[in-house]
Amino acid sequence: MTQPYSEDLRERARARLSAGQTTRSIAAAVSRESLAEALTVSTQRACQIAAT
Fold it and tell me: Which domain of life does the protein's organism represent (predicted)?
């Protein structure tokens, strides 16, 4: 099951919309940002597990 987007990510998307970006370009950017965040969290968890 997927998790909801973070409030920070939502705020960045709203800021992009206010700046005049298209919803398509915002969706592409948000998708990349959420993927990057997910990979960062996964890497951090893996490092924590490896350290124990």
Answer: Bacteria
